[in-house]
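Cross-check.
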Amino acid sequence: MYVEYGFARFDDSETRVIVIDEPLVIVAAIFWMDQNCRETYRCLSREISTHEKSFNGFENYIVYCIDLVFSETRRLSDVFNFHGQIPPWANMEAKLVSVYRPSLDKVEIGVACFARTTASSANLGTNAKSSDRTMSWLEHRRQSPFCFPDQSMGPDIMFVLQLSDQSLIWVALQTKYSKGRKGKLEKGLLRHAIASVTPSNYFLDKVSYLINLSSLKSRY
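Predicted model, tokenized:
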């Protein structure tokens, strides 16, 4: 649609990659929708069951809800359920942030709230279709607060929260759109979800990226 109306262009000969050089049209659409959060919510909720290679309606819906939840500082225990031994930071307040490293010796941390953003640089998430793009987000070379990692990594969604003591935590989510049985996920599906957000399982089929990820962890 954007190409048809002249707002975007194809960036490859196979007409698969679409580029928008001037994002003002997107910002205008966001501003219009944001005048009433219910409109945005309705648009995304209608697409929840849409699951395609380039678009996952349920993941987009969850990301928008997380952004709304953390549009104000929230105590983690009010948002997440903790099982087993509850860590002391569970009762801390947190806010959604974007972490960007413009150079090796500099890190920029900014409060992220897509629902209230009207700037031309508004970008809610990075759709990482390759391991390289996922690593780029993990290394803070992209400013978007959310990342949709490539399939080889594991989690469906990743984002960063800053706690009230200024420390940062990385959150990895697995989303499952299923009625399950009696409102609960089947055990097999639940085990798969837990395994997918277990760091030791990240990039299991990518040995070289496991090495890169280990070096990344050593920096923090």
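DSSP finds seven helices and nine strands in the chain. Confidence is low (pLDDT under 50) at residues 215-220. Passed to J.P. for a second look.
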